[in-house]
Amino acid sequence: MLQSYSEDCMKVVYLYGAQVTSWKNDHAEELLFVSSKAIFKPPKAIRGGIPICFPQFGTHGNLEQHGFARNRLWTIDDNPPPLPVNPAIKSFVDLILRPSDEDLKIWPHSFEFRLRVALGPNGDLSLTSRIRNTNTDGRSFSYTFAYHTYFSVSDISEVRVEGLETMDYLDNLKGKERFTEQGDAIVFESEIDKVYLAAPSKIAIIDHEKKRTFVLTKEGLPDAVVWNPWDKKAKAMQDFGDGEYKHMLCVEPAAVEKPITLKPGEEWKGRLALSAVPSSYCSGQLDPLKEHLIALNI
Ligand SMILES: O=P(O)(O)OC[C@H]1O[C@H](O)[C@H](O)[C@@H](O)[C@@H]1O
């Protein structure tokens, strides 16, 4: 487990799954949800924080649900290739995953997956993934991907998501059928499991009770999954408390509909930046013309 602090903010990253399990603001308030029943060892992924789904999101393929990266032991990457660094970033960690012989039996491709987790100015958290095809047999590979981010919310029925209205989505609760979202903002009254397609680069989660807004900025990740298991599924999950669905919401920047393909030697980059701002933030600020209102400098 790796812990780091920057300007009183904090993040915790596990080598198991390269999973961020804690992100705190300067009031020491936890911003991510982790279940009280989470299991921190193989074979299960940790229930909460930011699991990484690779090389498969969900059941979109033949591998285990969400692929294997989230339940492998990553290592510290001491000598990562340079990444453009914002000088304001005070603390970061680089991790790397390469396939084991066992992994190659289930997904026969050689890759290097580098993840940088950084704490930026104002406590903003960013995750940058770089995936490289290192196959030596000339073969390309394709994968789907998600940052399966669990946000901590006061009460799911008091939360709304802006930025996804009018988007097309695949409904996992209806056999992945395609629909178009109606209405102003997404609100929550029952189970939801949708893959929004070609979603905008900024999405906001507005928590009225906490007077807090999370702003997600995504790059290289066209889609966004929204998931809350609600009461029945919560009860069926061994590593999730019965009533915990009220205090979490997953909004997951992802590449699901169109898998990413890399030729040998090619590298893909996918980035997520998270910011928690006070709720004086109001609707409409996702308008690109007003984006300067959200100070995201990482
Ligand atoms: O229980 P897990 O394998 O971690 O998956 C939890 C959830 O992840 C995503 O949000 C999927 O869209 C859901 O269908 C799935 O139930």
From TrEMBL:
<protein>
    <recommendedName>
        <fullName>glucose-6-phosphate 1-epimerase</fullName>
        <ecNumber>5.1.3.15</ecNumber>
    </recommendedName>
</protein>
<feature type="active site">
    <location>
        <position position="148"/>
    </location>
</feature>
<dbReference type="GO" id="GO:0047938">
    <property type="term" value="F:glucose-6-phosphate 1-epimerase activity"/>
</dbReference>
<keyword id="KW-0413">Isomerase</keyword>
<dbReference type="GO" id="GO:0030246">
    <property type="term" value="F:carbohydrate binding"/>
</dbReference>
<feature type="binding site">
    <location>
        <position position="65"/>
    </location>
    <ligand>
        <name>substrate</name>
    </ligand>
</feature>
<feature type="binding site">
    <location>
        <position position="47"/>
    </location>
    <ligand>
        <name>substrate</name>
    </ligand>
</feature>
<dbReference type="InterPro" id="IPR008183">
    <property type="entry name" value="Aldose_1/G6P_1-epimerase"/>
</dbReference>
<comment type="similarity">
    <text>Belongs to the glucose-6-phosphate 1-epimerase family.</text>
</comment>
<dbReference type="GO" id="GO:0005975">
    <property type="term" value="P:carbohydrate metabolic process"/>
</dbReference>
<dbReference type="Pfam" id="PF01263">
    <property type="entry name" value="Aldose_epim"/>
</dbReference>
<dbReference type="GO" id="GO:0005737">
    <property type="term" value="C:cytoplasm"/>
</dbReference>
<dbReference type="InterPro" id="IPR014718">
    <property type="entry name" value="GH-type_carb-bd"/>
</dbReference>
<dbReference type="InterPro" id="IPR025532">
    <property type="entry name" value="G6P_1-epimerase"/>
</dbReference>
<dbReference type="InterPro" id="IPR011013">
    <property type="entry name" value="Gal_mutarotase_sf_dom"/>
</dbReference>
<feature type="active site">
    <location>
        <position position="252"/>
    </location>
</feature>
<feature type="binding site">
    <location>
        <position position="70"/>
    </location>
    <ligand>
        <name>substrate</name>
    </ligand>
</feature>
